[in-house]
Backbone:
């Protein structure tokens, strides 16, 4: 028996490859699936099942494409309703895989169809639980993503989740391994651990939601307290995972390389979004006017989903040379499939064409400290939890995730400064602001990490939802 966790840091997501005696099961695959096929071929094995723990909201799974390429059935838990052929498992249904078995445990609460998969070894002993978004390490799945107007509330779902955990999960032996669908950084929970593999016993001892003395009412209150609104792209991804989608390979084929003149013409004629994914320092030093920065080497895909409102808008890319296909693929992971092309040769092509460029103004943290003797406007675009932990005195919280909700707070008639933790998110924020006509915005180099090394006055505020 072989179990391999295939973890994608950008999505904080774990897919799983399980092989026994020449048969393979894949759990929660990414949208690009050739890797799984190649692994099975290397093991001289055949992919027999594709298991989905639920309809994912934060990424587009690869179940449809993988099934088309391998003829392996897609397995969902009870209550799943798909537009494509799938096997809807019953609670407790057992699937034979070589010398081992995988049992579907219906665990509604995160979503109505949420299902964990319990792997039993060749001796029939409980060995590992693939817990999806039902149980994370340090947290449980948020219960507000599958509400149906006037029929079910997040409190109803939280109550179901309490029962699922107590009746299906906490009854397992302490030594059963836990393989969750996500780790720290995912928006599918509040307080996920950085660890990606744990055990039932560890979770019983450390996970706040699995306390023995917790009542259902207490569980509902704690699990629903402090939930930030889900990213806007989540419903679109659920729809794609339910109804199907295009093959990533066809999306890549449709995106063409363009010279600078054609690239500029297309941007104007198609109302395409020009998305620059280079390092923030490169973007700051020079970029195409009105382009948006979301760096490929940060939390790229989730930030795309949070900041690009219209997933159907045509996208033209400015990427590091050689990373064009990677960028298109990672956009497709979160349902942004309309990449029509990219600047061939990267930004150097634009420079050689002698077309207009823009740069970002910036100051060091020490320069900001000097300027604070004046009436200086500063905006903090970190997440609310970071802001609550510590921030510059009298500076408001304007989280990047919800920047569009704060546009009226930024002045157009005087300079203002923006910072994040280290410089990645502030450049994203500034690129968006500049595209909306705020040309008097200035970046603070090094972000809050640099600010902490100055004499700038700082304070903290812990709101009830962060306790």
Residues:
């Amino acid at each position: 028996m072989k179990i391999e966790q295939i973890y994608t840091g950008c999505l904080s997501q774990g897919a799983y490859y399980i092989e026994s005696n020449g048969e393979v099961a894949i759990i929660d695959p990414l949208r690009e699936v050739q890797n799984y096929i190649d692994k099975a071929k290397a093991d001289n094995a055949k992919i027999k099942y594709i298991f989905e723990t639920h309809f994912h909201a934060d990424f587009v799974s690869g179940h449809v494409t993988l099934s088309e390429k391998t003829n392996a059935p897609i397995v969902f838990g009870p209550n799943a309703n798909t537009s494509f052929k799938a096997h809807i498992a019953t609670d407790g249904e057992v699937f034979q895989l070589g010398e081992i078995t995988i049992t579907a445990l219906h665990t509604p609460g995160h979503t109505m169809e949420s299902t964990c998969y319990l792997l039993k070894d060749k001796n029939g002993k409980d060995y590992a639980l693939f817990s999806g978004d039902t149980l994370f390490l340090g947290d449980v799945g948020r219960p507000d993503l599958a509400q149906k107007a006037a029929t079910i509330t997040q409190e109803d779902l939280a109550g179901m989740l309490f029962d699922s955990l107590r009746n299906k999960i906490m009854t397992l032996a302490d030594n059963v391994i836990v393989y969750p669908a996500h780790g720290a950084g995912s928006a599918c929970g509040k307080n996920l651990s950085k660890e990606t593999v744990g055990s039932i016993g560890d979770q019983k001892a450390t996970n706040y939601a699995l306390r023995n003395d917790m009542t259902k009412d207490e569980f509902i209150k704690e699990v629903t307290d402090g939930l930030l609104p889900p990213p806007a792209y989540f419903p679109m991804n659920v729809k794609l995972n339910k109804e199907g989608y295009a093959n990533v390979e066809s999306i890549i084929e449709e995106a063409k390389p363009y010279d600078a003149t054609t690239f500029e013409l297309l941007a104007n004629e198609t109302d395409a979004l020009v998305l620059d994914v280079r390092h923030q320092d490169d973007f700051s030093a020079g970029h195409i006017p009105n382009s948006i920065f979301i760096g490929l080497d940060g939390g790229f895909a989730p930030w795309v989903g949070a900041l690009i409102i219209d997933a159907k808008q045509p996208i033209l890319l400015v990427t590091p040379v050689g990373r064009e296909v990677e960028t298109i693929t990672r956009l497709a992971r979160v349902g942004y499939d309309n990449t029509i092309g990219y600047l061939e040769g990267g930004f150097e092509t634009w420079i050689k064409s002698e077309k207009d460029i823009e740069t970002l103004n910036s100051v060091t943290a020490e320069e900001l400290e000097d300027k604070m003797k004046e009436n200086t406007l500063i905006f903090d675009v970190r997440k609310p939890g970071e802001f609550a932990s510590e921030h510059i005195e009298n500076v408001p919280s304007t989280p990047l995730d919800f920047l569009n909700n704060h546009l009226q707070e930024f002045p157009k008639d005087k300079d203002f400064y923006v910072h994040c933790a280290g410089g990645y998110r502030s450049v994203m924020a500034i690129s968006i602001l500049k595209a909306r006509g705020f040309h008097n915005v200035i970046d603070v180099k090094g972000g809050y990490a640099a600010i902490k090394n100055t004499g700038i006055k700082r304070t903290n505020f812990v709101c009830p939802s962060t306790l």
User: Anything to note?
Assistant: The chain has three domains: 2-237, 246-352, 361-466. DSSP finds 16 helices and 23 strands in the chain. Confidence is low (pLDDT under 50) at residues 462-467.
